[in-house]
What we know:
Number of strands: 8
Oligomer: single chain
Amino acid sequence: MNLTDSPEDTVRISTRSATEPGQPIGLILCAVSTTRLPFSRLQLFDFLRYIQNRAKIMEGRSIGNSIHELTHIANGGSHSGNCISLFRIDHAQPIQGPSSSSQIAEYVLQESYSNECESVIAYSTMEVGRVLARTDPSTTPILPLGFVMVPINQTSCSTAECSTSTGNIRQDPGCLLTVGVQALASTNPDDDLNLDAAITISKMMI
């Protein structure tokens, strides 16, 4: 469904009932939006692969004091960013005053991949206990979100999308960026959609 009747509203909302292992049990709220940006898809791919950059544009904040890549597995292709990574983010949260703080760890699993025609980034936070316990990954509940980037000019779909056959630099027409977000709206799979939850998730994408 569309949230408003405005033709400029590009956020689409849907729901699904989740009852299978590998995802939170309950009513899952999904939001998707596509927009055109005046940057090449490879520029956006390299920018959005970094957690710190995503937090600044989607949440308007710095995401933590330090980010550590615990695991890095290449998953093919010619782009150096094609990989699966597990990150630990250490957040400093004051307890009693400016001189006292405790470290709160958050884990993010991310896959990024780019080929000649598209670039994809998918990621999700993970429960710390399950990561450390090394439980069966198929039973770990995650809700992936992420981005898909495709060039505007699909007829010139190549890694050298900013140059002509003669090697001359031309104006890049930009790319289409699709953002997909999921959230647990209710722990009851049979619940109806709450409008407040739909508005909250859509604000992340505007």
